[in-house]
Amino acid sequence: MAGHPRHAPRSPPLSSHLPAQARGCSDPSHGPGLARFNALSPEASRAVLLHCCGSRRWAHRVAAHRPYPDVGALLAAADEASYDLSQADLSEALAAEHSAELDHGAPYAALLALDAAHAEYERKFGHAFVICLDGHPPEEQADQLLGAIRRRMGHEVDEERSISADELRRVAQSRVLDLTRWLTRSEGASVAEIGLFAPVG
């Protein structure tokens, strides 16, 4: 949302978290998606990685270590790069996020409550609310999301920034995995289309 329901810097709000969507996809560990990612140009690889985390330094680091032998190695590199973000890198990444959204089928009262909570959060902390909700079924996400915002509103700015950095790391991991799956499914996509990677779930 910057969690469940993901993107590139300032792409359309995709619930701020390109969700992990296993939906019938085979294990991408050694599949064509990873091979296509390894074969992208440096520019195209950085472009798709910016949809996973909005830090240019993060995207450059992950792209520069290609080729990856398997998805586990790619995820480990993404994790390491996330832990190594400077404060400026983190600010850049958080600025690219959009606050988590609920499915449009959610109750109207929940949508209104979430809008109000997001506005209050962003006024206090100056960036979108980032959370990874992988593992929570859709019917639980409204309660999980609203509860998390309310808890985290009580944090000091520095504490919340640290928590947001950790959630952003988890979100980036999920988006990287999504990227390999998307590349597997979109075998006929051009380099330009790959550069616009932004699955909606």
Please, could you describe this protein's structure?
The protein has one domain: Oxo-4-hydroxy-4-carboxy-5-ureidoimidazoline decarboxylase (UraD-like, Orthogonal Bundle), CATH 1.10.3330.10. Helix 1 packs across helix 8 and helix 3 runs antiparallel to helix 4. With 201 residues, the chain is mainly alpha-helical. The protein is built from 9 helices and no strands. The N terminus is likely disordered.
Topology overview:
Layout: H1 32-39, H2 42-49, H3 56-64, H4 71-83, H5 87-95, H6 108-125, H7 138-152, H8 157-185, H9 191-195
Helix pairs in contact: 1-8, 2-3, 3-4, 4-8, 6-7
Which assembly state applies to the chains in this document? single chain
Identify low-pLDDT runs.
1-28
Name of the CATH superfamily:
Oxo-4-hydroxy-4-carboxy-5-ureidoimidazoline decarboxylase
Going by helix content, strand content and strand pairing, the class is mainly alpha
The biggest sheet amounts to:
none
Please state the CA-atom Rg, rounded to the nearest Å. Answer: 16 Å
Task: Give structural attributes.
globular, single chain, disordered N terminus
In short:
It catalyses: 5-hydroxy-2-oxo-4-ureido-2,5-dihydro-1H-imidazole-5-carboxylate + H(+) = (S)-allantoin + CO2. This protein is mainly α and 201 residues long.
